[in-house]
Amino acid sequence: MASGSQMFSILRRAAPRLTRDLFTCRHVCKSPPPKKLSKRLFGSSISRHSADGVLRRPDVVSLLDAVARPRPSSGVKTGYFPETSDKSVAYWLLGSAASVFGIVVFGGLTRLTESGLSITEWRPVTGSLPPRSAEDWDSEFTKYRSSPEFKLLNPHMTLDEFKSIYYMEWTHRIWGRVVGMSFLLPAAYFIARRKVSAPMAGKIVGIAGLIGFQGFLGWWMVKSGLKDDLFAPGSHPRVSQYRLTAHLGTAFLCYTAMLWNGLSILREHKFLADPSAAMGRLERLRSPKLKIFRRSVGALAVLVFCTAMSGGLVAGLDAGLIYNQFPKMGVGWTPPKSELFSDFYSHTPDKSDVWWRNPLENPSLVQLDHRILATTTFTSVMSLWAYTKFSPAVRKILPRACKKGMHGVVGFVGLQVALGITTLLYLVPLPLASAHQAGSLALLSSVIILGGRTWVPRRAARLVSQRLRARVRSPRPVV
Fold first, then answer.
1. Which residues does 405 contact at the CB level (< 8 Å), separation at least 6?
2. Is the pLDDT score of 456 beyond 70?
3. Mean pLDDT in the chain?
4. What are phi and psi of 332, to 5 degrees?
């Protein structure tokens, strides 16, 4: 027993020497490392050598440990969230954007068929199911008969006719609930499972809040058409054009945010798959020669959005049912000045609000403003296309994807102008009016896609730069 313990003690003392003699590379130990590399990796402490020029063992261990130490790359997780979001998040965002696109178009149909005021209550939970019995239908019809729309427009409506407009509004509300739930539940899953980056998690939470706010705006808009004191006595019962435009604008913002962020995630993955090619493309986009083009695309996106919102005012005031000629309005290019800035729309004794109420409440001026904005949008798109076509510097350096995106914008703006003119000339028929509303969102989408190909994504550029630096610093395998 004693001899066994003595043998174990001898082996334990000999183990360090055997390890050093058998596994230490003599060639590496005899050649001193470069001073620049030593100082860069370890500071002044690595420069200690023995008299015969052999590096001391602790410094060799430090050198090997530093070379083998893993360096963070752009794909690894730093903290709670990863550096890049998963591709599944991008596809989910794009699918949500498609759903919002659909509900915007269906909401326009609900308004055009005058179905939006058929449900006079807001019940987010209990209103998920339609009436299921004759008594339930009688109760809903009784509530609708007390509304101004029934008394002034539909006093002879039957129960079967009421059911048709009721189902239109009910479908619109159910679709809104589906949009909300299909966004909130996956959003919670992706964030909990760390499938999104930290900036993207914040954006997703913001979009979720915007969806909830959109639901509130929807009821706030409908409420404005259920009370006599919210519109002029004896006038056509309708929802407030202000609230309608706010509801439409929030839907456009939700859609744009989903589309933009979904495309951004896919763009990041594409860049990181080939950082060298991505860096070359980013350098081209950063060129000062494209500065005017980049800013013009941003201004064009704002202009398209403002034109669409002016269309919301036109829809809220039924301004498309007057002056059904183009390009003139009546006998002249514009209505008379006395009609455009009428004192009828003033709410103050001194008439000081005429200058801002007429552009928002006077159907004649609202339609003229929409015509001006639409013409300006069309002219701006064609001018920007001509700039990319006939400017030698821009044509040479502009990436091919940007040129294709510009052609797409030209196509959509031409289609939108044609739809707008025919909708006006034919007194706002249902198919053309719905297509015109869908065309505005499609045009905005094309501009956003063009912007995604033109603007320099700062975060993606930073990730590409980090990936390239990691490749340069990574040790090469020894052959």
1. 446, 449, 450, 453, 454
2. yes
3. 85
4. -130, 180
469 Cβ neighbours under 8 A, 6+ residues apart: none
Give the pLDDT confidence of 300-322 residue by residue, as tens digits.
999 999 999 999 999 999 999 99
Contact between residue 178 and residue 95 where contact means Cβ atoms under 8 Å apart: no
Q: What would the mean pLDDT of 126-151 be, rounded to a whole number?
A: 90
Structure tokens at 367: 């339609």
Q: Which of 469, 299, 302 is nearest to 384 (CA)?
A: 299
What residue type is assigned to position 466 of the chain?
Answer: Q
| Residues composing the chain | 479
- What six digits make up the tokens of 176? 């809104």
Cβ(63)–Cβ(471) below 8 Å? no
Residue 48: predicted pLDDT: 41
Q: Which pLDDT belongs to residue 422?
A: 97
Q: Are 255 and 261 in contact (CB under 8 A)?
A: no
Beta bridge partners of 77: 82
Residue 25, pLDDT score: 52
Residue appearing with tokens 């705006």:
217
Half-sphere exposure for 298 (CA within 13 Å, toward CB)? 9
Q: How far apart are CA 379 and CA 93, in angstroms?
A: 32
Q: How far apart are CA 425 and CA 382, in angstroms?
A: 24
pTM of the model: 0.81
Q: Which two tokens stand for residue 50?
A: 């023995």
